[in-house]
Design brief:
By secondary structure, this protein is α/β, with parallel strands linked by helices. The protein has ten helices and ten strands. Helix 4 links the parallel strand 6 and strand 7.
Length: about 300
């Protein structure tokens, strides 16, 4: 299948909206660090910022954009509704909270953070609110995060609009082929969180994890192309049509993570990276956890 990626770092979503394929993620970015990091990212060349109500740093993302001097119209803003705000009216209000904190009147991509299958009726109501926000012009596109194929199927049975994006854990050690197929069948862009396998070496996420950045196969391919392992993994995603949202607070790594459009991986490289899949999830399984039990409420602006 031909990749929807163009040479100028743009993906066209299923509703015609253009989205930069490489975004800058602020997951686990402390509020006091976020504004400076976002400002640096934008000055480095990023034009897509991914945040979430649950990250607690939307206000600082907005501040970073203002500090950067980049016109807001040139920045693609993506954020997520947390499960404590699921429900129709609750999700409409969640948009207002996020927009106020970000300092915008319109959000480019608003997605549901979790499928929450234990309370899926609330998830459906939340998604119907996203559909209304799209119809009103309050958002330009809508989507989901951490949805598995059966969650997508259940959503499609009871809602009208196909998600533009499904953001899921995806890196060379966990490629989620079934999710990618389900997304492709719907025309939904697969967006990778932890695209360079950061989930495999974050402190506190388990023991005996192996960093994908230290994988020998990726190291060999990186040496052959004169690139970093992170650049190789990001290019692997892009050539297969995925969006990526790498996170780094280091200015040099930020620059390298977006500098991935001057080379191409061969088929053998792509197959070799695909073959690294271990089928082992690094983050929480959305079917095994009930995020409504997590002590996380989204404050008012």
């Amino acid at each position: 299948m031909k990749s929807p990626l163009t040479l100028n770092n743009q993906l066209t979503l299923n509703n015609g909206v253009s989205m930069p394929a490489v975004g800058y993620g602020v997951f686990q970015s402390a509020p006091e660090e976020t504004a400076a990091s976002v400002e640096t990212a934008l000055k480095t060349g990023y034009r897509h910022i991914d945040t979430a109500a649950g990250y607690g740093n939307e206000r600082e993302v907005g501040e970073g954009i203002r500090r950067s001097g980049i016109d807001l119209d040139d920045v693609f803003l993506e954020t997520k509704v947390w499960v404590s705000d699921y429900g129709y009216d609750e999700t409409l209000h969640a948009f207002e909270k996020s927009a106020t904190k970000l300092g915008v009147s319109q959000i480019d991509l608003l997605i549901l953070h979790q499928p929450m299958p234990q309370h899926f009726e609330r998830t459906l109501a939340a998604y119907r609110a996203l559909e209304q926000l799209l119809a009103d012009g309050s958002v330009r596109s809508i989507g989901v995060s951490n949805f598995m194929p059966h969650h997508l199927a259940a959503l499609r049975e009871q809602t009208q609009i196909v998600p533009a994006v499904n953001q899921v854990e995806l890196h060379p050690y966990f490629t989620q082929p079934a999710v990618q197929r389900a997304n492709a069948e719907l025309g939904t862009v697969t967006q990778a969180w932890s695209p360079i396998g950061g989930i495999t070496f974050y402190p506190g996420w388990g023991e005996n994890r192996e960093s994908v950045l230290e994988d020998q196969t990726i190291g060999r391919i990186a040496a052959e192309h004169g690139k970093t392992p992170a650049q190789i993994m990001l290019r692997w995603h892009l050539q297969q049509g995925r969006s990526v949202i790498p996170k780094s607070t280091n200015a040099q790594r930020m620059a390298k993570n977006i500098d991935v459009f001057d080379f191409a991986l061969g088929d053998e490289d792509l197959y070799a990276i695909d073959y690294l899949d271990r089928g082992v999830r690094g983050g929480p399984d959305p079917d095994d956890v009930d995020p409504s039990t997590w002590d996380l409420e989204i404050p008012e602006p």
